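REVIEWER CHECKLIST
Item 1: Sequence provided? yes
Item 2: Single chain? yes
Item 3: Sequence as submitted:
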Amino acid sequence: MRCSILVLALISIAACQKPVGDDRMDAPPLTGEKYSINWGPVMVPPGQENTQCILVRLANDAEIKVHQMHNVLGPGSHHLIVYKDDMDTVEQTTPYDCQPFTGALNLSGTVAPIMITQKKDDPLTLPDGVAYTLAAHQMMRIEMHYINATDATITATATSDFYAAPEGSVHDEASILFIGSPDINLAPGTTTTVEEFFTPMRASLDLSGAKFFAITGHTHHLGTDMQVSTRETSAGVDTMVYQPVPFTWSEPLTEVHSPEFTVPQGGGLNFKCTYNNTTAATVKFGESANNEMCFFWAYYYPSKGSHVCVHTTQYGGLDICCPDAGAQLCNMLNKN
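Item 4: Structure as written out by the authors:
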């Protein structure tokens, strides 16, 4: 339908156009038996920033295949990570201080992120026949990074909902990759672009056959643009897979791909972040909202495990992944 009648312009545009950066309007309805986890509430004084986790068992009496998820974040949220936790055995329902991305950088490989959220209202539907398998009374870890930039105390909250797929409808397991670079050094009062190329083969990461169905870019508040493309190195061909216009760092678009995209054999993923450092200080990599990041997360299937990967010049221009590279990368990122 074309919105072309002048007298109805305001009504027509609202009805016909999808707001830039809003990927919720096309989301399918949430269906299936629902299981919920609540984080908080936590009272956050003005100026306070922290990362806190909870460990909670899901209320499912039998194994379920989770085909849809929905995260809703309250005031002050910076981002939320939902983990499937096969390591911890004791619940901790009261939020406790935890290191950012601790679960993703866990060397055991038994704690795996299954959804990362930066938007206030974030539904995720996996492709037909794809799901996360959760055991009966599965232990889940919810990690919340919050900051109160206001002059009044706020109440931080979060809810994660899990929707079970019908029995027998699932044939593939999903997983998530978190890829970026710690090589950020932004001079004060300047515009800077960080561009890196990650090659899975150099990281001993086999992504052959992996189908990527959703991707989200991530910077902090100085970020003005984020782009990701796949690269066929032999032909020198890039194919853009993430390029929201405009890029909104606080509510980054999740680009859904149907059909899914793949990483060319022997090729890789090129990613680029642009920043406008309006501060009077040099800004470097870090999890704090006062630092910066250049990362993206991508959901894919069939699962070959959850990985946090970087391209970095800090160790001679390496492409490395955690937990694959062991303590080298996991410890490096945990120190920043």
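Item 5: Key structural point noted by reviewer: Residues 1-22 have pLDDT under 50 and may be disordered.
Item 6: Recommendation: ____
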